[in-house]
Amino acid sequence: MAAQSTEDIRPLRLGIGYAQILNMATAPELSSANYRFESTVEDRGPDISVMRLPGEFTLATLGPRTSLAGRITGGRVRMNDQFRFDVPPDFAGGTIDSRWSGTGLSVGLSLAIDLDNGWRIAPGLDVGYARLENKARYEGLVAESRPELDNAVFNWNTDAVLVTPSLGVQWMSRTPERTLLARAHVSSSWVRSRRESAPVLAFEEQVGAHSLRLERVAPLGRELAGRGIDWVAFGGAAGFYGHNRRALGFSMVYELGLGLQISLRAGDAAAGRALRVGLSTLKGSGFKGWTFVVGLQH
To answer: pLDDT tens, 153-166?
Structure first.
């Protein structure tokens, strides 16, 4: 990021960006992935990596069409960027290499309600706790501004609390030849910092996220140890919504991928719990990325 002076970066503008980084560690909309933004001669472009480990389990069956599930999610997000400070005319002020690291853990409940014709709705509520820190390295004349920037814009840390109500909607159609699945999810997270290393870092933000995913699963015609193997084609879109949705430089991510899944019990992989592996490509405004998928399917 090119800048003319340190005044181009203000902590008061960055709270929503911090909140979005923490949201990516625990919210399901943006999948575990690596994102790389386009570079120019003047701007190296940031990169973001997300790793998230979700788990979900049935707590109780409340009726023939209703069940209560618990879930726990742990995640980590890293974002690297380089800030350039140029003093005209053609005098290099230096650079700041910056890394944000966020870790989070959330627990929640989800109520699954099956409707007619393959539809299901699932309202949920998650509560999480996260930590975000920044580490930066100064090079050149800009290092003289370190006393003003440290613990305000760079080289700081904070904890945060996240409360996230959400709503999921799913449609499924299953035949012996194939399974079609469409899933939409929307959430709104309240994110408030606490135990900041400096008062100027305090923030309280709302982060809206949404996603849409489409899948087609069909038998591969092969078995392993008596367990059916399916091939999977999937695609979708996810991102942030709201007037500050581009705080991290993007608002939407589009995904397209292929995978295989094998049943965890003898028989059809699509009919019960299955282990899935896959690879997908990601694309958005000014960036591209990829993700390797490993997970259990229900």
So the answer is: 899 999 999 999 99
